[in-house]
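Hello, quick one for you while I still have it in my head. My current little project is about how a certain protein chain folds up. You're getting the sequence in one-letter code plus the fold written as tokens. Would you mind checking whether the tokens look sensible for this chain? Here's the protein in full, and shout if anything looks odd to you:
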Amino acid sequence: MTEPGKEKILLLLLPFWDPEIPPQGISCLKSYLEPQGYRVKTADGNTEKEFRKIYFRYYQVLQSHVPVSCRRNLFNDGVTLLRNHLMAHIYHSDKDQYYRLLKILVEKNFCTSFDNSQLEELDGAVDDFYTRLERYFLRLLEEEKPSVVGFSAFSASLPASLFACRLAKQKDPRIRTVLGGQVFSDQVMKGTPDFDYFMDRTRDYVDGVFVGEGERLFLAWLQGELPASQRVFTLKDIDNKTVDLSAVNPPDYSDLDLSYYPHIGVYGSRSCPFNCSFCSETVYWGRYRKKKISQLVEEFKRLYDRHSYQLFLLTDSLLNPTVTEIAQEIIKSGYSFYWDGYLRADPPVRSVDNTLLWRRGGFYRAKLGLESGSPKVLQKMGKNISIPHVKEAICALAYAGIKTTTAWMVGHPGETEADFRMTLELIEELKDYIYEVKLQYFKYYLRGQPQSVSWAENSSPVLLYPEWAKDMLVSQTWRLDCEPSWEDTIDRVNRFMDHCQRLGLPSNYSLEDVNVADWRWKKLQPNAVPSLVELQDRNTYIEENKHVEKLYAAVNPLQEDSEWL
């Protein structure tokens, strides 16, 4: 067993991941391990200016060569292309085959063709990224001299993490390298051929992979309580013991430069009380658990005292079980905290009395997974919400001035053209009550989604990219052989975004976008929350939420003769 204090641990989140909040996973590990005697250093490569420049350079190349009609969802679809490009760059051995794959990746994601000169522009940005990443990571190794290096691995950060694992072993074979994160609950999930191939491909430079909640599992590994010959670890290895949320400290962000982040992250629960067909949240976290609300608000206070942030992003899967209690506890505390979170259009959300209470308690933005305007598709998804209820919820939130970020999905198995048009019609009807739209297309994983197995039985999974691409991409991308087709899905993505653009609905990907969206929201909603720019001023304490009142009769503007209250 390793004596606590002997290990120096370096935990990283590498590009490319949007720095909306400081990396919460590695910050939670730091706050959990340091009281156990370990020295932990955290770092976020996503806030490094040199990497951000390369990120925007890559998208500028895409924007200059992809036809306008095919790039409506550029930043979302570009993430998939960039992730696969980064992975292929590490593992290719033949340039002709590599460029052949890049052409396929561009065609599948943007329905257009690039010639070699255009691919060279893209590849130049990727090559420059790895040159700079090597310099950045070796400098960290030299400064920190860790014996363990851990990486928070999402789909978009996995290529850089694997590159750094190899570098660490080349620098000093005694360094132990480990990975954990969401990617092992969907894209590269344990029990799939992709996972087996991944583990075999990385056996020379990845010492351990942690699947699911990591605090107790990682500690057991550090203390030598798990087999030294084992490389994959799950909660089953520690008798499914999860961390006691009532006893944890807030995430420790002390190593990070918080000036780069518009919000600071905190959480009040883990997992989700619902089980939507396309989501892997319950697979990753297991059973739903939550903190006491008084404990959560105390964490708000502690983080505010440390960092002067009034704006928090709650990373809970859903706030519905706790949103009213959080607002009431914050009001009771006398503080003004503003907080984002994910919400379902359940009955309490349709009440203006509730949304005004939440607004007075600091609820700032509701991230709503609405997904579709088709009742049939919502039923297939297991959403258990109706279109009339969606309308009422959106209007009630907007009336209170709470930002409504709406998430939509196209291409779910069985979605027809008529279903898709229902989504467009619903968005048009709600446009003045929607703060912003976010879109993704349906992604299928062999395991990790509640309906993964039944989908496979009814619609055989097929590869999106050729079989030979696995050597460069390490894992494969699957789709279901059913309607809508891949081509129809990508077409709907572009038509969806084009529709929203015509309606003047924002889809924010930069601070400038957010500023424009905030200005629009203030024009539309008299009770609008403060702008992000206002809340980023750490020298000004904002407490306008305490004075929010009803401004006019609470009548649902989308349903005649129908009272909200």
